[in-house]
Design a protein that fits this description.
Layout lengths: L2 H25 L21 E9 L7 E9 L5 E7 L3 E12 L2 E6 L3 E3 L3 E5 L4 E8 L8 E8 L4 E9 L2
Parallel strand pairs: 1-10
Antiparallel strand pairs: 1-2, 2-7, 2-8, 3-6, 3-9, 4-5, 4-8, 9-10
The chain binds copper (II) ion.
The site of copper (II) ion has 5 residues, from strand 8.
Length: about 160
Amino acid sequence: MCAACASALARARVRLSALAAAAVMAACGPSAERPATEAVPLPPPRAEMAVHEAWARSADSGAMTSVYFTLTNRATVSDTLQGATSAAAEEVGLHMSMQHGNTMHMASVQSLPVPGEDSVLFAPLGAHVMLTRMTRAYAAGDTIALTLTFTSGQSLEVRAGVRQP
Ligand SMILES: [Cu+2]
């Protein structure tokens, strides 16, 4: 596992354990008078996302670029990617490229499901995070930070290494 993936995983675990602690504290509230023999229900399983191999093409200030990566759901429950945010561009969205004959088109998509124990590939000619009107120039060696948000409420920080186009 690469260092970026390991740290992304560590951050995801920190958030998950904080949520688990909150759930336990809530469970200890008004229901404390229930018989001690009754089993305390476990919190529902949550999707646990990780990103590998995040990269983007270099872009001038005001231009657009795409971010690519492999998004892996390590949990058994599915989740849905519903958006992305980044300070690197004025507009950030989920896009899908598709080929019609010899012409490439791309369209914005509202959300992308990520099944449990599965990966979704964001790659040229497919799904990507579209960054429109970059707030500054990004050259090879720079890093673009973005945050992926999911319908479950979890979010995932992504650091994409910039490459030459
Ligand atoms: Cu696009």
